[in-house]
Input
Amino acid sequence: MTGPPVDAPLEEVVSTDPRDGRELGRYPLHSAADVAAAVTAARRAASWWSGLGYAARRSRLDAWRRLILRRVSELVELISAETGKTTADAQLEAILVVDHLRWAAAHAGKVLRRRHVRPGLLMYNHSATVDHHPLGVVGVIGPWNYPAFIPIGPIAHALAAGNTVVFKPSEYTPGVGKWLADTLGEVVGEQTVLEAVFGFGDTGAALCTSGVDKVAFTGSTSTGKRVMAACAESLTPVLLECGGKDAMLVDRDADIAAAADAAVWGGLSNAGQTCVGVERVYVHQAVAERFTELVVENAAALRTGVGRDADIGPMATREQPSIVAEHIRDALARGARAALGGPDSVRPSTVEPVVLTEVREGSLALTEETFGPVIVVNRVATMDEAVAQANACAYGLGAAVYSRARGPQIARKLRVGMVSVNSVLAFAGVPGLPFGGTGASGFGRVHGPEGLREFTRTQSITRQRVRPFLRPLSFERSPRTMDALMRLIRIVYG
Ligand code: TXE
Output
């Protein structure tokens, strides 16, 4: 569980700017009783919201999107202030927010509408339909690295599917959480369909046991396990997005300059604090030297700092630099080489780019999420070796493959939820694509049709249209009936 960002009195969450330590705002620390009250209110609003239907919800969510766009500079400024990320990174985040919100609102009706299913031979006399009902109230627990983009996935999809949401933003980014809830409140005035609750781990834990109908969590794997354990008590379903250790694979026929550019951006943008950021690169030995040179050259040219002209901003939390430093020290102690930077690159709030090569198996930089501007570049003899090494990791979130001839072929061998071929992170920008991982990266999907269905209860209904000729579902069935059915099945399916 994380501690307060500053030495705050316990009844408040204090948000500060990692660039200069300036206080940005104070938010009430919500107790378990406050969370329960928010969930009760959300449950009242849920029947009204689900009763509106897809078209009316869509028009309200579209109005929210337009409001966000009108005031997008506010959102960008707030994201930058609470996370320290550069304006360009915050703008990209805001663009993704709007795009995913638009998609969820536009597609919920199509994806979730009643579907007819062929009844099959045995039940030929029935009609069969599938409905997707909203669950009711969804609890969303958000992280600090993308305080708007990550939670908007479950929030937009849950709302579009007809649920209401109680959202606990990270204690580092309560202001963004409040801004999202307030702006939606401005366009949906009748009832509160998105309520923000503030606090640390205890508030998140209270949300898990508050009686919500599902919890969508993004954060560390260790906290994800605690969330799942808390939800197990009441069989509350969970969706867990628990981070990654994403690999990029670079084949000998790849566009090396493009791959190096992508590795540097994918690994270092947002100061490396991206769950689908590039943390490890496996590059074919035939091109490894050239690739590594370019990565080092490109990374060395970036400006790190707290100023507005920086390419890499400060780390978003006080804890993160020490985790990054530990991973660098551990890799070097086990025999890795620092091709750029090293332990001295880690300052109290900023971390300059670090490129490590020849990192040995078992090093923390290969097994644990570093979540900092550190790129591991290891060479491999074949792409099969690259795939094996990429897969030899507990995490399985995303990956990237650079290859002119064999990109998708290599991608399909990776045990991850998403892959970008000849680009990085592109899958996160396609709203129709489900987003999520496997293994220690969690399970469940946000975005795309799967992301909408996550927040629904599937109900199957059969309706008998005519009385059957044979009646297998009755004690009145005779041995002759069953024999006739057996014969029929053999003829048709045999
Ligand atoms: O996350 P936590 P932290 C990874 C990253 C980072 C590490 C630690 O590697 O170094 O996690 O970050 C709430 N019940 N990622 O400690 O604790 C908490 O208040 C319910 C990856 O900041 O997992 C916050 O809102 N909720 C990741 C949220 O969980 C609880 C993004 C996440 O916090 C809780 C963030 C509890 N018992 C960190 N304890 C990504 N992949 O995007 C805490 N929380």
